[in-house]
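Below is how a single chain appears once it has passed through the pipeline. First comes the sequence as given, then the structure the pipeline wrote out for it. We keep one example in the README because the format questions we get most often are answered faster by looking than by reading.
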Amino acid sequence: MDVSVFYDRDKFLRETELPFRLYLIYLVSFFIHIPARFSVLGLIRFDLVLVGVICFLIFSNKSTKGGRLDDASKYLLAIFIYSVAVLPLVEWPGSVVNNGLYEFVKGAIFYFFTVNLVFSERRLKLLLFVFISCNIFRVFEPLYLNITTGYLGSSTYLGGSDYAGRLAGAPSDTINANGLAFVIASIFPFLHYVFAPLNKKTWMLYAIIVPVLLYTMGLTLSRSGVLALGIIAFGIFIKSKRKVALLCLGVVGIFAIWSSLNDIQKDRYLSLVSEDSRQASTAQGRVEGWFTDFEVAMNRPIIGHGLGTSREANWNVAGNDRVSHILWAEIVQEIGVIGLVLFILYLKTMIMNFIEAGRLIKSRLPESHFLSRCTQAMQVWLLMNLLFSFASYGLKSYEWYLFGGLSVVLMNIIKGKVSEVSIENNGATKNDNSLAGKRFSLARRINRQG
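Resulting structure:
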C-alpha cells in the first residue's frame, strides 16, 4: 500500500467534516422530528434541504468520484432501478412514483450517508452517541407525558366492548405502540455494550435507565417488543462469560417485573402462550394476518404490486386497510419475489460484514476495546431486528439501511485498526524511517484527527 493513501484519507477527513456534521444534525432532526415541532422548519422542508446540501457536498468532493460500489450498495441500487423498470407492469404506478420511490430513497439515504461520511472511530462514536441520545429522548418524552398528563396515544382491543390504552410515541412523533417498543429494544444493546462499560458512573446510569425502559415497555403492551427484549437478553447471555450471574439476575428481574404488572398487562403477555387469556384472540388474529398478507402477495408474486403499495394491495385484495405487519410479506407484496431476492442478498452482505468484523476483532483486539463492544452491540441488534421483522413492516424504514451502512463502516475501521496493530506488533514505531513506520505514524495521526 502506498503511503499516499493515508495522506488522501487524512485530506478526505478534513474535506468531509462539514457534511458529516450536517449528517449528525439530520439524524437529530429525523429522530426528534424537529420540523414537526417548529412549523417554520416544516414549511421550508428542513430535512429535505439538509439532505440536498449533504448530497451536494458529497458529490462535489473529488475524493468520492470514481469509487467502486460495495456489494450492499449494488443491491440497494438494483432494488431502486428494478422498482423503476417495472413501473409499466405494476398495479398502481402512480403510488410508486408519488410515495414508494420517495420513501425508499428516504430510508436508503442513511446507508449512503453513513458509508460516505463515517470512516473513523471518532465519527462512529459520535454517530452512535446521537443515535442513542435521540432514541432515549423518544422514549422518555411520552413517558413524561404519561406520568404528568396520563397521555397514552394508542389503544388495543380487549374483547367485547373493552379497550385498553397503549403508550405510543409523543404527539410530535409518528410511531405507534409497537414502534415505541422497537425503539426501546433497539437502544438496549448499545446501552449495555457501548455506553455502560465506559466507567462506573455510566454503569450506575445504565442501572437507573434500564428499569425505566422496562416500565415504558410494559406501558406499550407490545408483545413483539417483549419477545425482542427476550432475544436481546438471550444474545447477551450467549456472549457473556458470567452466565450463572446473568441467569440469577434474569430470574430475579423477571419475577420483579411480573409482580409489578397490572392485570391487563399480565393478560396481554400471557396471550403469547395461553389460549385462555382474554387477549388470546388478538394474538391469533396477528398470526392469521400473516397468512392473509402472504395470500395478498401471491396475487402478483413475481414483480409485486409496486414499491410502497402494500396498504393499497391489502385493501383492494383482502379488505384490510393497513400495511403488511411482516417485513417479508410486505416485500413480496410490493416488489415481488425478484425484489425479495435482492433484499435478501443485501441482508446477507450486512450479516457477513458483522460476522467478519467479529472474527477479526476476536483475534486481534481486546474485548474492552470500543470496536469490540460496538460489534457485539450490532450483532445483538441484528438478531433482535430479524425477529422484529416478523411483527412489523420495514422495507422503507431507516433501520435496515443505517445499520447496513454501519456494517460496512465497522468492517473498514476494524480492518484499519487491525493493520495498525499488526504494524505496531511488527516493531514499527513513530521514529522509524521505514515505510511501515511511516504508515503506522500516519495511521495514528489519522485516528486522532478522525
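Residues 327-364 form the longest helix (38 residues).

See the next section for the split statistics.
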